């Protein structure tokens, strides 16, 4: 008996090693990738993550979620990013963290399937397929999608620990594991609140005898600490964010591409088309996309919507059907549904994204494991089949690993991702938009303009896209300016958002460009008006005064320019670029001594600042 136990333990260790190596084989090259898409503002552009002494803020301040000021409460996720960035701010550090999280999820899933009674070979093959599956590429390579990895890690840890608690094996560790799973899952993503439902469903599924009222109470009592944690988390969200959950009703329905506008009916009808596609891609990973095409539907009477929902319901019914070794199948189906339900119901700007399928993919893997066990058992009964069975398994794993590696290599440069999307879907406005904004981020405004123009032509009503288009045109380098195009775009921005300060600031910049190109002084006066109009409906900013000062300089009114810069400094915006610009204006006014004093002071504060060096060069140039 001891020998058998040692052999089983040794085989289990070998299966853990095999799964870990498979995941590293498929996704190890992720460390070669760059920050892309949302990674820029949520990770590398988020100053709140740069100092470990500020961890207290990450635990309590929802605005620390993103460098854009977007508010979400995901403290565990942010702390994990801060720890990674403390090692290195280079992409490899955060990417490696994601890869190791994926490996950890796979190893936890292997232990979970072991506790659910799935035979060794079947669970090893099933989890190895999950570990190398191309559908996991986005969740692993998109560092901002770490929330999915941590969420699933927490849910699986909780579910695995719950089985240990139910079966009386290391019960204290089981309870600690459930609590830790709840903290990690809820602290990483709002979907973590489904953990109590998952644990109660698992308790119901693994119990063979009929349930009594006492059994129900015992099941609830076992997970009371998890329920309390989830309720506490929802209360905290209410306090910090003003809402515990998302309101699904009273949406206008004007523009289904925007989550806050899409109605619940449109959301659920559209899911009738998207869910079967996602389920199919879990089996055959074809048509994978960084920007999956979405065809919005608004009625359940649509034949395709009806067929899609009936197909998903039929697949779920088969997974829940009673029978031999039905426990993993049922638990897996519940896991897939519970991890998918929040984004199925809640209208998001991107209703369908591969990284959100990470949890459902693991659920389908768990559900399929007993079917795989039955197939392998049947093949093993035939000598010839038993000999050849490892070949197709190895071929499948290697094929999936190769596809995952190839997709992972695209994350070296975001432009590669969008170019591949455009090649597959030429009318995908989001892909053209993504390519244009990526070119801007790589400081290639000339290459950014036409993709953004193409995206705007495909979806002219999208405000953020129009704003990015105008910004790109305004950033064109000398000799390539398009001032009249910029003027038209910024006018459209103001018409759509008449009280948007950034639209007025861009309009001021466009008027300056047109004034320089045409020599018409009226445009400089209009630029000053647009800049100062920002003060009527937004807090003052240095940019407003600097734009107004530039307009005055273009009009030859140096005293007026100096007055704007003095007002800026008096308003508390005593920044190095503002002081350097003030020194330049003083020099132009002939107040050279004052300008030099100002620059000497700035040199002592910021000797290498480009604005200071430029101001010194201008002051030293002939005629000054």
In short:
The protein is mainly alpha-helical and 624 residues long.
Give the low-pLDDT segments.
Answer: none
The N- and C-terminal alpha carbons lie at a distance of 95 Å
Mean pLDDT: 90
Rg calc: 29 Å
How would a crystallographer describe the biggest sheet? Answer: none
> What portion of residues belong to β-strands?
under 5%
Provide a descriptive summary of the structure in words:
By secondary structure, this protein is mainly alpha-helical. It has 2 domains: 2-244 and 253-408, no CATH class; 427-620, Serine Threonine Protein Phosphatase 5, Tetratricopeptide repeat. It is 71% helix and 0% strand. The protein has 30 helices and no strands. The chain is elongated and about 95 Å long. The N and C termini lie far apart (95 Å).
Q: How does the SSE layout of this entry go?
A:
Layout: H1 2-27, H2 39-44, H3 55-60, H4 75-87, H5 91-115, H6 120-132, H7 137-141, H8 146-166, H9 171-188, H10 195-206, H11 213-222, H12 224-241, H13 264-283, H14 303-320, H15 326-345, H16 358-380, H17 383-388, H18 390-409, H19 414-424, H20 429-441, H21 445-458, H22 463-474, H23 483-496, H24 501-518, H25 521-537, H26 542-554, H27 558-570, H28 576-588, H29 592-605, H30 610-620
């Amino acid at each position: 008996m001891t020998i058998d136990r040692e052999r089983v333990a040794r085989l289990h260790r070998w299966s853990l090693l095999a799964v870990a190596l498979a995941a590293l084989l498929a996704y190890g090259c992720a460390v070669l990738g760059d920050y892309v898409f949302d990674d820029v503002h949520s990770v590398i552009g988020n100053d709140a993550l740069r100092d470990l002494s500020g961890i207290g803020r990450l635990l309590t301040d929802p605005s620390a979620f993103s460098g854009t000021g977007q508010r979400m409460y995901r403290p565990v996720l942010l702390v994990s990013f801060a720890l990674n960035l403390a090692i290195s701010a280079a992409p490899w550090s955060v990417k490696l963290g994601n890869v190791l999280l994926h490996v950890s999820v796979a190893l936890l899933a292997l232990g979970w399937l072991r506790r659910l009674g799935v035979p060794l070979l079947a669970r090893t093959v099933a989890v190895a397929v999950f570990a190398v599956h191309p559908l996991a590429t986005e969740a692993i390579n998109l560092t901002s999608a770490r929330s999915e990895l941590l969420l699933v890690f927490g849910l699986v840890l909780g579910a695995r620990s719950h089985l240990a608690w139910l079966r009386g094996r290391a019960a204290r560790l089981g309870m600690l594991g459930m609590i830790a799973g709840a903290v990690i899952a809820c602290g990483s993503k709002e979907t973590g609140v489904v953990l109590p439902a998952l644990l109660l469903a698992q308790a119901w599924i693994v119990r063979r005898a009929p349930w009594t009222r006492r059994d129900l109470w015992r099941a609830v009592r076992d997970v009371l600490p998890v329920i309390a944690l989830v309720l506490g988390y929802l209360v905290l969200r209410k306090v910090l964010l003003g809402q515990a959950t998302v309101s699904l009703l009273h949406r206008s329905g004007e523009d289904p591409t925007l989550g806050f506008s899409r109605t619940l009916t449109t959301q659920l009808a559209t899911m009738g088309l998207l869910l079967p596609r996602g389920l199919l891609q879990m089996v055959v990973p074809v048509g994978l996309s960084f920007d999956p095409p979405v065809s919005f539907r608004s009625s359940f009477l649509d034949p395709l919507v009806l067929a899609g929902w009936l197909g998903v319901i039929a697949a779920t019914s088969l997974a829940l059907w009673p029978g031999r070794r039905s426990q993993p199948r049922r638990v897996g189906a519940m896991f897939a549904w519970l991890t998918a339900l929040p984004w199925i119901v809640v209208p998001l700007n991107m209703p369908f994204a591969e990284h959100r399928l990470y949890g459902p993919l693991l659920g389908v893997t768990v559900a399929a494991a007993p079917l795989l066990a039955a197939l392998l058992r049947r093949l093993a009964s035939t000598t010839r089949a038993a000999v050849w069975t490892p070949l197709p398994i190895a071929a499948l794993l290697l094929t999936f690993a190769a596809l995952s590696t190839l997709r992972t290599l695209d994350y070296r440069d975001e432009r590669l991702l969008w170019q591949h999307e455009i090649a597959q879907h030429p009318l995908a406005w989001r892909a053209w938009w993504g390519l244009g904004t990526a070119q801007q981020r790589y400081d290639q405004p000339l290459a950014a303009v036409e993709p953004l123009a193409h995206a705007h032509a495909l979806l002219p009503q999208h405000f953020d896209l129009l704003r990015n288009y105008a910004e790109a045109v305004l950033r064109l380098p000398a000799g390539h300016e398009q001032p009249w195009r910029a003027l038209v775009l910024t006018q459209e921005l103001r018409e759509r958002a008449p009280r948007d300060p950034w639209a007025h600031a861009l309009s001021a910049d466009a008027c300056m460009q047109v004034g320089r190109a045409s020599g018409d002084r009226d445009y400089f006066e209009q630029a000053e008006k647009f800049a100062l109009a920002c003060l009527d409906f937004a807090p003052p900013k240095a940019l407003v005064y600097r734009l107004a000062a530039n307009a005055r300089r273009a009009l030859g009114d140096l005293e007026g320019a100096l007055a704007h810069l003095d007002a800026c400094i008096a308003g508390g915006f005593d920044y190095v670029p503002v002081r350097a610009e003030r020194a330049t204006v003083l020099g132009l006014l002939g107040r050279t001594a004052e300008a030099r004093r100002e620059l000497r002071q700035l040199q002592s504060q910021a000797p290498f600042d480009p604005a200071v060096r430029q101001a010194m060069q201008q002051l030293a140039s002939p005629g000054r």
